[in-house]
DNA sequence: CCAAAAGTGTTGGAAGTACACCCATGA
DNA sequence: TCATGGGTGTACTTCCAACACTTTTGG
């Protein structure tokens, strides 16, 4: 009789303008690792699909529902949980934090955004899980337009530049980047303008998801860099 | 108390020269789906890592040990197994069939290669799993040099061409393809020649894995098409 | 008028694509 | 000598990379 338990965990990335990338962590209020920070997650119910389980856990532990969510990898080393054998199906999500207020709920003492370069010590093998998610994000943002899930629905071009620079971690030529993105015709211009801060105000754009999907079906590939 | 069981399955691709791509299937000799063809796999032992479990199952059910093996996706829909809730961590593998003779062993009545365009009806959701694996193979072969695992260690250039054409499913310009591959400097020329069949014999090449790995660490990207 | 960010074009080089002929072998 | 597949070069086009000045706004 098999004794393995199945859990799900979520690595949810959020981006705060002109700042580092963040991930969502919860503070455990049960043993083991009580008091430590960890990725939100928990055991899958017997009558619940895996996707549903992550959505539920994210809801319960942080009150959040990501705009983008997909399966990342399944971690199953024998000793990754000190109590029992637990394998974890990990999902990778993106949200715009300004649209989602966190509230820790069941099972979590607290839920917070942490800058990825100032993470606390994490429970279990969550450090390794995070690394894998980050590397997936870095790769994937270069060939699928998923970055828009991290921005406001209407954003100035410079937000997009900053986002890519932050995630990829190198500086990009503004002019070439803009030309490339624009050439895909996936951004609709709004007639709004952002006038925050100093300098010339920028036009706001909107990502046209429908257009991307119809192009993608015809074999179009998004690609940056 | 959670009742979910954890299994692993493997989608193992094999390539037979000048022929379609094949996958390895086993014939079930227990219910459910007794007598039907299915992907090799089975329940994970309590004290066994996931990778070890797939390797064991492939060994037990087909007597095979793939040259390349990596995790593909975890399938966990509630009703995918008629008996109990079973989630399956699926791996995706590549072998050169001429180096591995199949022999069905424990749990399997038979093990055979099937051409991917003449697959029998499959047990469980294995059809969907296969589709996902195939699409991963098609994508991945274009940006990682994994195709060499499907060929003989020493192969004439035309085998590589055929392989890519078979997998991607469109015809490639021989001259440009060769130029591209050669430009990476990852193929070592042997001084052997293949004289099978008619026509001018071709030189045999060997993929230089070490060289690829050292380049990859320095940020080199393999890319075809 | 100064500071700050937005907006825009041109040019040279590299890489990709299209394309056709000669070569070595066995029958 | 013919049929079969192996081996190679060139010209055109497209894409990418490098690069700097002008515009709009607020203070």
Automatic annotation (TrEMBL), chains A, B:
Entry keyword Hydrolase: yes
CDD domains referenced in this protein's UniProt entry, alphabetically: NUDIX_NadM_like (cd18873)
Gene3D superfamilies the record matches: Nucleoside Triphosphate Pyrophosphohydrolase, Winged helix-like DNA-binding domain superfamily/Winged helix DNA-binding domain
Record's keyword annotation contains Zinc: no
Protein name, entry field: NUDIX hydrolase
Residue ranges annotated for the Nudix hydrolase domain, each copy included: 3-138
GO-annotated molecular function: hydrolase activity
InterPro entries membership: NUDIX_hydrolase-like_dom_sf, NUDIX_hydrolase_CS, NUDIX_hydrolase_dom, WH-like_DNA-bd_sf, WH_DNA-bd_sf, WHD_NrtR
Superkingdom field: Bacteria
Keyword terms, alphabetized: Hydrolase
């Amino acid at each position: 009789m098999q004794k393995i338990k199945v859990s799900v965990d979520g690595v949810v990335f959020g981006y705060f303008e002109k700042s580092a990338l963040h991930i969502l962590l919860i503070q455990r209020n049960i043993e083991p690792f009580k008091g430590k920070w960890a990725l939100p997650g928990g055991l899958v119910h017997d009558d619940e699909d895996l996707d549903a389980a992550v959505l539920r856990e994210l809801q319960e532990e942080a009150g959040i529902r990501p705009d983008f969510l997909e399966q990342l990898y399944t971690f199953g080393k024998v000793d990754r949980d000190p109590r029992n054998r637990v394998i974890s199906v990990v999902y990778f999500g993106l949200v715009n934090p300004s649209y989602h207020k966190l509230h820790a709920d069941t099972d979590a003492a607290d839920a917070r955004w942490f800058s990825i370069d100032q993470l606390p010590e994490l429970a279990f093998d969550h450090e390794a899980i995070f690394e894998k998610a980050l590397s997936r994000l870095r790769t994937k943002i270069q060939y699928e337009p998923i970055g828009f899930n991290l921005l406001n629905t209407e954003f100035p071009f410079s937000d997009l530049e900053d986002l890519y620079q932050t995630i990829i971690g190198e500086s990009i030529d503004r002019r070439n980047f803009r030309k490339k993105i624009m050439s895909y015709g996936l951004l609709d211009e709004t007639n709004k303008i952002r006038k925050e801060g100093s300098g010339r105000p920028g036009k706001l754009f909107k990502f046209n998801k429908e257009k991307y999907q119809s192009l993608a079906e015809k074999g179009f590939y998004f690609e940056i860099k």
